[in-house]
């Protein structure tokens, strides 16, 4: 059976599976940490009988992470355009390399065909 563990602060920690009939540990419950409508909870905490969710605002305040460190400057439009140009150039270079390879393969096939034709011409005389 699936059980839900909580830590010393009663906050949800992890899930585990135990054999049916095995006693549920004191720091776990069989009650899933979901809202009555089946949606997930924000940092659920066990109150002894049910899981209690933080509000989204509380969760954002306690767990929000800075999206970009302060010491990392924002990308300027010129830098973004330069990066896009570099990507376009790399794509063009890849296309040129593929065309060269295709041309080399075509030349090898042509050389093989010409050699076969020459051998056939020698054999026919």
Quick structural summary:
The chain is α+β, with helices and mostly antiparallel strands and 125 residues long.
Write up this protein.
By secondary structure, the chain is α+β, with helices and mostly antiparallel strands. It is built from 2 helices and 5 strands, in the order βββββαα. It has a 3-stranded antiparallel sheet, with no helix packed on it. A two-stranded antiparallel ribbon has the order 4-5. A hairpin with a 5-residue loop joins β1 (2-6) and β2 (12-17). The chain starts with a strand and ends with a helix.
List the helices and strands and how they pair.
Layout: E1 2-6, E2 12-17, E3 28-29, E4 42-46, E5 51-54, H1 56-63, H2 77-124
Antiparallel strand pairs: 1-2, 1-3, 4-5
Measured distance between first and last alpha carbons? 86 Å
- Low-confidence stretches at least 5 residues in length (pLDDT < 50)? none
Strand order of the largest sheet: 2-1-3
What is the count of β-strands? Answer: 5
């Amino acid at each position: 059976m699936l059980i839900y563990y909580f830590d010393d602060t009663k906050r949800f920690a992890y899930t585990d599976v135990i054999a049916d009939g095995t006693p549920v540990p004191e720091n776990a419950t069989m009650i899933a940490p979901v809202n009555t409508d089946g949606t997930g909870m924000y940092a659920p905490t066990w109150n002894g009988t049910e899981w209690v969710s933080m509000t989204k605002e509380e969760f954002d305040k306690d767990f929000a992470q800075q999206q970009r460190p302060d010491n990392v400057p924002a990308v300027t439009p010129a830098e973004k355009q330069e990066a896009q140009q570099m990507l376009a150039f790399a794509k063009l270079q890849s296309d040129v390399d593929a065309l060269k390879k295709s041309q080399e393969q075509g030349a090898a096939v042509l050389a093989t065909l010409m050699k076969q034709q020459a051998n056939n011409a020698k054999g026919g005389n």
